Amino acid sequence: MNKSPSRLSASLGYAFRQEALLRQALTHRSYGAQHNERLEFLGDSVLNCIVARALYDAFPNLPEGTLSRMRANLVRQETLAEIAQRLKLGDYMLLGEGELKSGGFRRPSILADTLESIFGAVFLDAGFEAAQAVVLRQFEPIIASIDPNASGKDAKTRLQEWLQGRKHALPDYRLAGTRGEAHDQLFVVACHIPALGITTEGQGRSRRAAEQEAALAVLKQVGEAK
Question: Both 60 and 123 in a single domain?
């Protein structure tokens, strides 16, 4: 753990009563027996409930299917990892030597799991309302940016369906490079559509996020961005 957890608490907008819970939430299984996997299990359920309620309130006229797709987009690994990177969770996590050497502190799956563990830890520390406040602090800006008239599908899915509907081959996504320091990397991905003669680039804090940006750039070029 490279930084004081108190700085993380400030970013979360929540001060733990039981600091041991926060330490456990930040502990990967590679570090020791008192790790965060059970907290992750709990935090996943808490997160889904809170996000579902937030979407239910924000979009009173949308049907269940659309709300479900929106929730899936919000609680997926890519979104959670980007929030975790914004909170600089990699600076606070406790990882075993092997995970440290292999860059586990910036791996999207570990970052996403750690964030869910923190939500679970807040729930145990102070109850549902406290967890709700912490979750919404991170997710309300994202929910506010959602266009209710969009399909609810992510850009990669929409592009794939659009290409398939015109009997074109699927996109070819390739990592074009990375930028920034190891602890704050930005991935650059190229999306090639040979049948259309289109190549775009996208950037993101994870490879998948960059792929989404590249796919959205294609949709904009063909007039299908929503």
Answer: yes
| Same domain (yes/no): 51, 122 | yes
Domain range for 37 is: 5-144
Rounded distance between C-alpha atoms, residue 119 and residue 46, angstroms:
7
pTM of the model: 0.70
| Contact call for residues 176 and 189 (beta carbons, < 8 A) | yes
Specify if 149 maps to a domain. no
Q: Point out the catalytic residue in the list 44, 78, 82, 113.
A: 44
116 classed as catalytic: yes
Known active-site residue 91: no
CB 214 within 8 A of CB 200: yes
Per annotation, catalytic residue among 40, 116, 125, 213: 116
For 5-52, write each residue's pLDDT tens digit.
Answer: 778 888 899 999 999 999 999 999 898 889 999 999 999 999 999 999
